[in-house]
């Protein structure tokens, strides 16, 4: 199971995280475009996992310990009174059993949430799905755009930092025109090698980037950077 930087490593901290996520998920479901069944399934997964951590597994471990102690008592202990065999606790308010893979399903849901058009940093922090490495400086890509002399023409060289994302979507406009997506950059540096709109005439190219993951561009745009590309 891949490491999820927002998800705590200890059971005690996980219970706190899961309780918050369970409470907040229904509140943001509409904005994130989540179906009611997705929310209810996730809540049911969390309820069963929390019960297992808090109640089910400790009871099994305690019964195992009692069984070991009982075996030792019968084998080598003393006394004139019969000691009954330990009785496993009977759960009267047990949540509905869920299929294996509660946490992978939860992480996939979080991934879908982050790709939703309605997702933003405020929702991410409220749900607790922004890891400690995702500081505010990483909400959008960090990049630089500079002119670069290519083999035949002058071009723009773009370098960027992905911070764990698949890549970045690059948008540009020329001389104040319309913004258009000109490429998906997954490896740096990335080059804009378009021909000049007017041959032999320098032009101002502006660039803005946003995250690209699993086939979708998402989240906010970076501040605009501007370069002048000549013949």
Count of spatially separate domains: 2
Along the chain, the helix and strand elements come as: HHHHEEEEEEEE
- Find the count of extended strands (DSSP E, 2+ residues): 8
Terminal CA distance: 51 Å
Structural class: alpha+beta
Q: What is the helix tally?
A: 4
Share in helix: 25-40%
Task: Give the CA-based shape.
Answer: elongated
Using the CA coordinates, give the radius of gyration. Answer: 28 Å
Low-pLDDT stretches are 133-137
Major beta-sheet overview: 5 strands, antiparallel
Query: What's the overall average pLDDT, rounded?
Result: 89
Please report which band the strand proportion falls in: under 5%, 5-15%, 15-25%, 25-35%, 35-45% or over 45%: 15-25%
List the helices and strands and how they pair.
Elements: H1 11-32, H2 36-76, H3 102-115, H4 121-127, E1 142-149, E2 154-161, E3 167-174, E4 180-185, E5 190-192, E6 203-213, E7 216-218, E8 225-229
Descriptive notes:
The protein is α+β, with helices and mostly antiparallel strands and 231 residues long. It folds into 2 domains: 11-127, no CATH class; 136-229, Immunoglobulins (Immunoglobulin-like, Sandwich), CATH 2.60.40.10. It has helices at 11-32, 36-76, 102-115, 121-127; strands at residues 142-149, 154-161, 167-174, 180-185, 190-192, 203-213, 216-218, 225-229. Strands 3, 4, 6, 7 and 8 form a 5-stranded antiparallel β-sheet that branches. A hairpin with a 2-residue loop joins strand 6 and strand 7. Helix 1 runs antiparallel to helix 2 (36-76) and helix 2 (36-76) runs antiparallel to helix 3 (102-115). The model is unreliable at 133-137 (pLDDT under 50).
